[in-house]
Design a protein that fits this description.
Oligomer: single chain
Strand content: under 5%
Structural class: mainly alpha
Helix content: 55-70%
Strand order of the largest sheet: 1-2
Number of helices: 11
Distance between the termini: 120 Å
Shape: rod-shaped
Largest sheet: 2 strands, antiparallel
Amino acid sequence: QTQMPHRRCLQLCTVQELDFVKTGISRASEAGLDCVDKWLFADGPRLFQAAMTRLETLEAEEAQRCAEEELKAIQEQMKEAEEERRAAEETVRARIERAAVELDARELSEAFQAAGELGFPQTSFADAHQVFMDLQDGSLLQRQLLKYRAATSDASENGANSLELLRCCNLAAQLEVLGLKEFGSPQDMIDVAGGMMDSCNKTGAVSVFDTQDPTLLKAAERCFDDLMNFSRLYNPSLWGRRGVRGRARTCSVSGGMAANADGTET
């Protein structure tokens, strides 16, 4: 009576899955039926051995399935990594090409560094690299800036090209990096600001930042973050100079009292 349930369970092990087979063999072994001499049923040892064979087969299949799933997971990870690498390469290529068109030396330098980290050889961007080298030539920068300033000066009649405006911003910034932009004489950027304002007035926009053109928006951000580029503002580098000199000429000190130009005392 005690061996009958185990015998029946071992019979079912030949058609059941791994967990059932493991449980059946474990319970039979705990009852001592893993020993041939313990069986009262003649077919008991054969049923136990058949269950053990079934267990080995199922465990081998499980191990193979796990290995296949692990391999599949690794392949998917490799595929994702490759897609990310390609996306990063495309992003860097786009950055370099855009920066070269916009004559943005700083962005080119950073993009080249990112390309190097991805393993790109310098020859992959020969044209862009030549642009970057040209942007280190002060005299060439000045000539290009004069050309683009002339183009933007016609904004009131023809509408300034957003790319030309941005190029002016980038060329002026690079001249400053090279130490060739005279401080206190921001006429280059003032002209750019004027071109953007003329374009803004022509389109009826409320602000130069009220645009869907990413190039024009970038130019506006780079231009109007510096008070020296506002054409209707007094040059910030000269703030306070004329007032101090005028006060010095018109003030006299007498008995510890200073007379202002309007006759009041302080």
